[in-house]
Every structure is written in C-alpha cells, then in structure tokens.
Specification:
The structure is a single chain. The protein is an alpha+beta fold. The strands form two sheets. The chain has a six-stranded mixed sheet with strand order 1-2-8-7-6-5, sandwiched between helices. The protein has a six-stranded mixed sheet with strand order 3-4-9-10-11-12. It is globular, with a radius of gyration of 19 Å. The mean pLDDT is 96.
Length: 321
C-alpha cells in the first residue's frame, strides 16, 4: 500500500494545533468549516512553527532538525534534513507546484493536498503516486488568510468537503517562512535532476543542510535571501540506484546553481534586473549549491558545485560591528 501523505500530514497539523500556544500560531475555523493555522500573518510564529510547517510540507517523511552553518564571518541557524522517501516527500508533497488565486488573494500551494488535486498531473504520473485520503492538508505561502471562496475552490480541486480541508498559512517574510523554505533544499535538487531528464524514481535516500535566512525585508526581498540560501550554500546528498555511471556523472555536473548564467549575485538583484518577471530569470538558478551522489551498485560517489558564502552574506545584508 502507498503511504498517504495527507494522513501523515494531518497528524502533524493536529499536533501543531495542540501546541499552538507554545508555537505562537493562531487557529481559525472559517464559516465553511475549513481549519486555518496562521503561522506568521497575524501571529508571531517562529523557528519551531517553521519546523512544523516543513514537516507538513514533507508529509512527516523526513527527520528535520535545527543545526548551524558557519559562513565565515558569522554562524547562522540552519536546517538539516534526512529522508528515506525523497520522491514522495519532496515531489508528491513538498514541491510548490500549485498557484492559487482568488479575489485579492494569491498563494503558492505545497504539501500533501497537491497529491489529491494532482497538481501537476504529469508529475504524479511520472512518479506513479496517488493518494485517496478523505482529508486534505495544504501549506500556503502567502501574507493573507484565504477566505471561504478560495478554500472552497481548493477543497473542490482536492475532491474533499471544505470542512475536511486543513491549511497552514505562512508568509515568506516571517521566521517560520524562512525555515520552511530552507527545508526545501533536497527537493530543489530532486527537481533540478528531474528537469535535466534524470529518472528521479532512482533516488532512494537523501540528506541536506542549509542556512536559514534572517528576515531581510518584505516578501520579495525575503524570497531573494531564502532562495540564496539554496543557491549559494545549500548542500545535498543523494543515494541512487542508477546503472549508467558515466551518464550519472554528467547529471551530477549539471545540477549545481553555478551552471546558471545568472549565478554570482544575490537573487533579489537578478530578479529586479529582470523586472520582477520569473520567466526572465534562468531556471537553472533554482538549484542547490552543492550535490553529492552515491550510486549503490557501483559503490561510486560523485560531487560537484561549491559553497559561496560571500554572495549569501551580501544577500543577508550583514554588518560586522
């Protein structure tokens, strides 16, 4: 039987509600019955709230914990994660592949509910995953709480009733937001491999460690600094079962962000120069800084990429006093 990402995600969601006071998050039930956890819109949230959001995003199929990362001039908080279900945790659940729009509302949807909405369908066909849960659990990266109209449409897309929909809302420009974005470092590497044509179903285990960005300004500026954590200091490790070792070496070479023509400056700068148009930014930028791959049959291990602390420190706007 397949693991139900929504059943696993709901367990964490309920745990989050049980600990809402300690996590400094709010709970609201909309008139249509949808339950909302506010992890940073009107509530404080924090590091631990961000950890719960990351657990929900990955359907609790990863061990996620806090660590630290030495950037040379400063040691900053970091997220370290390990999963034995990288394709399901990262691609069936965590991948932010659902743009949700409504009247005066926009949010990026990720987490278990995507597997019910099959968004995007071709991805689920590729990884041969399906979920038939009765409840849907979604994470929305947004600075607004969705209303009944938006949540009813989400529920419809997931083929559940609105009262069976559970949503965590977390802004990019929040501590919880920066934590959950950093926790996407392994997923970013899996997605980059997929975009290169690699059969991601061969990925069996994964590990990553990455700095957590400070809150550097509004959502757009924080989008820049959080992406820079992945682009310039995200370190990933994968175990794969892939017979063609020479072909694997070529994939490993192509994954890191340094292959992008836009590499070398803070993402916010690149985004601004592109007129804040994502389609004008090289998609190759959205990749971890470093990747290491162990192929289990040959016993070979390959690594490529590099850590670039200077650009990340610039992105953080660090001032040494």
């Amino acid at each position: 039987m397949m693991i139900s990402v929504n059943e696993y995600g709901l367990d964490v969601f309920e745990e989050m509600m049980d600990n809402s006071e300690a996590l400094q998050v709010g709970i609201e039930e909309l008139d249509n019955g949808t339950t909302i956890v506010d992890a940073g819109v009107g509530e404080e949230g924090g590091f631990e709230a961000g950890l719960y959001v990351a657990r929900i995003c990955m359907a609790d199929l990863a061990d996620i914990k806090f660590s630290s990362f030495d950037l040379g001039k400063v040691v900053v908080p970091a997220v370290e994660l390990t999963t034995d279900h990288p394709v399901v945790a990262c691609m069936a659940s965590q991948y932010a592949g659902w743009r949700i729009k409504g009247k005066d509302f926009f949010g990026m949807g990720s987490g278990p509910a995507r597997a019910l909405s099959l968004n995007p369908r071709e991805l689920y066909d590729k990884i041969l995953y399906a979920d038939e849960a009765d409840d849907a659990v979604l994470v929305l990266e947004s600075d607004k709480i969705p209303d009944e109209g938006v949540t009813s449409e989400i529920a419809k897309a997931c083929r559940v009733e609105p009262e069976d929909l559970y949503i965590v809302v977390v802004p990019t420009a929040s501590i919880a937001g920066t934590v959950q974005i950093s926790a996407r470092v392994v997923e970013t590497g899996v997605h980059k491999l997929d975009s290169l044509g690699f059969d991601i179903n061969c990925i069996e285990h994964a590990h990553g460690i990455i700095p957590i960005s400070p809150v550097v300004g509004n959502d757009v500026k924080c989008m820049g600094s959080t992406n820079d954590c992945i682009i310039y200091c995200g370190r990933t490790y994968y175990t794969v079962d892939y017979d063609n070792v020479e072909e694997l070496k070529e994939y490993v070479k192509k994954v890191p962000s340094l292959n992008s023509k836009d590499y070398g400056k803070p993402f916010y700068t690149t985004f601004k120069e592109a007129g804040f148009d994502f389609f004008k930014v090289d998609a190759g930028m959205f990749a971890p800084a470093e990747i290491t791959v162990n192929e289990v049959n040959s016993g070979k291990t390959f690594t490529s990429g590099k850590i670039n602390t200077e650009v990340l420190l610039e992105s953080f706007g660090l001032e040494a006093l």
